[in-house]
Amino acid sequence: MRNSKSAKKKRLEEIEEIEHLNSWIQSQKPNSGFNPMSLPPLPSNSPIGLLRDNTFSCYSGATLFKQLPISQKTKDGLRQCNYHEMTDIQRATFPHALCGRDILGAAKTGSGKTLAFVIPVLEKLYRERWGPEDGVGCIIISPTRELAGQLFDVLKSVGKHHNFSAGLLIGGRKDVDVEKQSVGELNILVCTPGRLLQHMDETPNFDCSQLQVLVLDEADRILDVGFKKALNAILSQLPKRRQTFLFSATQTKSVQDLARLSLKDPEYLSVHEESVTATPTRLQQTAIIVSLDEKLDMLWSFIKAHINSKILVFLSSCKQVKFVFDAFKKLRPGIPLMCLHGRMKLERRMGVYLKFCEYRSILFCTDVASRGLDFNKAVDWVVQVDCPEDVASYIHRVGRTARYHSGGRSVLFLMPSEIKMLEKLQAAKIPIQSIKANTKRLQPVSGLLSALLVKYPDMQYTAQRAFLTYLRSIHIQKDKEIFDVLKLPVDKFSASMGLPLTPKIRFLNKKSKQKSVSENPPLEPEMSDKENELGISREELDDLENPREELDIGDFKEVDRVFLPAGETSNEEGKVGDIVDIIPETRVLKKKKLKINIHRPVGTRVVFDEEGNTLQPLARIADTNCTCDSLLLDQDKKEEYYKKMREQLRHADLEDKRLDRERRRQKRIKDKMKWTKNNFEEEEEGESGLEEEEAGNRRSKRSKIYFDSDNDDGERKGDNVKASISLEEQEALALKLLSSMHQ
Ligand SMILES: Nc1ncnc2c1ncn2[C@@H]1O[C@H](COP(=O)(O)OP(=O)(O)OP(=O)(O)O)[C@@H](O)[C@H]1O
User: Fold this and answer.
1) What function is annotated for this protein (predicted)?
2) For the domain that residue 72 is a member of, what is the CATH number?
């Protein structure tokens, strides 16, 4: 009794709270329209009251979560997670987000963007009194599975006092059927694009028509071409009347992107726009100029010198990650090593991610780990062995360290040919200093790698693949000012990986040839099959053609499956391709290439009339006395009709066979004539010097072939002829036949 009374009291309090919050929201001024450029930047110490339309002016001095007009349940969750003071992006976002506006949020890496959207999501559904029967109220989309998992954890811990149901929908999970049974009842979905789309396509009761909030974390990445198809398909199934949040450290301002999302007067909140640096201030950044063949030595020396640090090492492809990880692991540097890339199974990926959060170790990874991940205990160093494809990619990679209030350091290995990247980074307000590598202190590792490759011959293959995919990754980069494959010392590079011989790089040879004939370009450009250019497998090509697809490779595959006929089951680890897909529109799958459009069944006989026009099947029996219409009425006549038809078809078939036999026979005779004529002439010209016996043998052999092959209708006529006439007579006969043909 007492329990039910207190529950009732709690409910009444809740209703009162919701009404109070709603009336406050109603009292706020309407949005004044979207013009990102006109928005005064928010200084990091600005009170909220500086926002353009005085929204939240009553909370202008608020710096703590507890001062905000949000539910007690959210406040309790925040307190228990030890979140008390708001960060800049959180302070800037809440006024608008709580008022129901669309947000484009941009802030440096590690500045708390996650809470900036998680809290408004919880509050929105709370104020709407969202319950299990209301279905999906919010969708949060992340480009990678690891990041989705991380967002889900934050949502669970901050929202643990709320009664919403939430689910994590990510690719690579095998329990998709179990998911299908409950996904329709979930209120908040945290997902990767591929798996969300899969549910939209396959799950019968999955309904998003009541969606209140859509969040795109790492928005610029999700709006990127790699996710274009998937996102468009998702958006087409969502209601346009909704609140949309886009967050990223490198936010998009593309009007096209915003149009795709049907944003309504969004607020562009870029809290660090006026900041002196685009990266966290506590991040120390260095670039080391090092040649390609010295990169592994440099990395090995770096690791040996920092065995007490937690280090994240970025390489450009899965194959490289695999090779460097395998090789260095065997060389035992004295610190645990791990690897993370898009071709690993989900369980392993998640396992590695969690382990790296826990332990001091080195993680070799591709860009799959470049965005959003907040490794629990601070990462000390971010090492970029391979140059990032652009400035945004650099910002996200280094952003894995120096998060929130902690410091961090990063090193970028730059080859002399990539020096332009340094200028680009500095132009983008990234304080990076370059130093020259001190080669005297390098610990060479190539000798050790050569020995390893001899000891483990399987590793040679891995090394070759890594070598080729690296070159290919440079070749396909868009920014040719920085990435020029022809400037690379490929032989030295191959040797530095321990390879005894430089693998054949067909596309490089082609390229240099093209360069040498560039003054006399060929009239028609050569069609290049990319796969053949390199001599690497399609899988590797996929890996490279969609390097950023790695971000959620399994999901891409799933999307492939939706759009294109891919062979694998949807929930298996996909091959590009995160990245799949999601697959660039220009890419043609091998399977697709092989598809043949057959317009009529194989073996269908085409019948021509006397004028040479094709006749429809059965047209030849159209003159029959029975018409189908009348036959349909009468069963007996029908039988008779079919009998007649069968008979006619049989006759037609026999006739066709006979004609075909005749035609083939004529052809054979013609061929034989030709053959005999040629040989006769040849013998006359060429055999004059031969021994009579030898020539005779050859003649007799050929004669035999000639007559034996005349084997129409299965009769061995040749034997008869051979038996009845001599060799000379046979030749004379052949001549006679020839001369009659010429006449
Ligand atoms: N108000 C806060 N008080 C204390 N810690 C916070 C607060 N907001 C965020 N953090 C912590 O800061 C770290 C970074 O937060 P978050 O991952 O949201 O950053 P982000 O801006 O999304 O980074 P990225 O751009 O890399 O995705 C996390 O460890 C988070 O727990």
Assistant:
1) RNA helicase.
2) 3.40.50.300
